[in-house]
Amino acid sequence: MIVRITKSNYTFQFILLTASILALWIKNLWNPAPPILFSGKDFLYPILFESLCSHPLLSMLTAFFLLLFQTFFLNHILSSHSISKNPIFAVSLFFLLCSYSNNMQTLSPMLIANTFLLGSIQAALKIYDEKSPYQHTFDASALLAIASFFHPPLLFLFPILWLIFLVYAVNKWREWAICFFGFIFPYAALWLILYISNLSSIWQSFYFQIVKEDFFNPDFLQTSTLVFILFFSFCMLLSLFFVNNRMLDVELAQRKKIWTMQLFFIGSFILFVFSNHSLSESLILLPTGAFLMSEYFYRSKSMLVSEILFGAWLLLILTQNFIPIF
Question: What is the C-alpha to C-alpha distance for residues 36 and 170, in angstroms, rounded to an integer?
């Protein structure tokens, strides 16, 4: 019923998004969740946000406005590249999934990193529109590097950019070289700043963290995370099958940009599978995952299945926020 109404009533989409914001976040004003502060692996996050992390309410408000910005940014990406028939529905789903539980409604390294990851996706999508996309190539790799300052495993998404070059048939050596130098430039600039500021010990600590520490340490999943990931994976399998099945009906430019979103999602999902399996780290899946899932919910001819799955998501999110049973 809800998905069907959004197909004909854009006003309802704004009402749904506003109601989601009020229902899921306003309760945190009285009992905000503590901010997530990982040790060691997050590099700049503890340095830049240490003061916020000591104030749960301030941390929650920062996370809220940051997520709101990401929601509008994702809407801009989907609209400007015309890869979603209904971007408002996609970003509404993104906001809902990012608010899955109270533990996700606070500041975390992955929430910060997602802002730069969205910027990298935006720049990567622009590469196809330019004959000499040097600036966009540099921006895509540099923003991905900056995102890795807050969540170092994102380093391993760099090969995704070169796979996107293959999708776009970029065969000039300059773009490949600029992509590489764009990725290492933020690290070189940061090292220089820390060296001049006599804070090189921070860099050395981070360097040895990358070289020696195993980022991929699978832990046992908590029940709430397991439910989220299993249901999310099931919906994504349906979505990926559906999106790829309808590729022949899509123009070539849109097709390649949708493949770009899929590559970012697949890379993010691989990182998550080998991560610590926390709900906050699942945020890496949601910018691209919400778009792909919304395509299935919104375009599927089997409306009954779409309504059941979307309704199940709403019920699960509301349950986890107000009557947590997992």
Answer: 40
pLDDT digits (tens, 9 = 90+) for 8-52: 556 666 676 677 777 777 777 777 777 666 544 556 666 666 666
Query: pTM of the full predicted structure?
Result: 0.87
129 contacts: CB under 8 Å, gap ≥ 6 = none
Query: Can you tell me the distance from the alpha carbon of 118 to that of 70, in angstroms, rounded to the nearest whole number?
Result: 8
Which residues, 6+ apart, have CB-to-CB distance to 5 below 8 Å?
12
Angle at 205 between CA 199 and CA 211, to 5 degrees: 140
Burial 180-193 (b: 16+ CB within 10 A, else e): eebbebbbeebbee
Compute the Cα dihedral for 83, 85, 87, 93 and give only its sign: negative
- For 177, phi and psi rounded to 5 degrees? -70, -45
CA distance 87 to 76: 8
Instruction: Copy the structure tokens of residue 208.
Output: 């040895």
Q: Using alpha carbons, select from 96, 156, 158 the residue that is nearest to residue 283.
A: 96
Other CB atoms closer than 10 Å to residue 104's CB: what's the count?
Answer: 26
Note whether 123 and 140 are within 8 A (CB).
Answer: yes
What is the Cα–Cα distance from 181 to 284, expressed in whole angstroms?
24
- Alpha-carbon separation of residue 194 from 109, 153, 201 (angstroms): 20, 21, 8
For 255, other C-beta atoms within 10 Å of its C-beta total 17
> Residue 108, by phi and psi: left (phi above 0), alpha (psi -120 to 50) or beta?
beta
pLDDT tens, position by position, 123-160: 999 888 777 788 889 999 999 999 988 888 888 899 99
Question: Counting beta carbons within 10 angstroms of the beta carbon of residue 219, is it exposed (0 to 12), middle (13 to 18) or buried (19 or more)?
Answer: exposed
Query: What are the φ/ψ torsions at residue 47 (nearest 5 degrees)?
Result: -75, -45
CA nearest 181: which of 210, 132, 145?
A: 145
Tokens of 120: 């990298």
Question: Cα 307–114–32 angle (5° rounding)?
Answer: 75
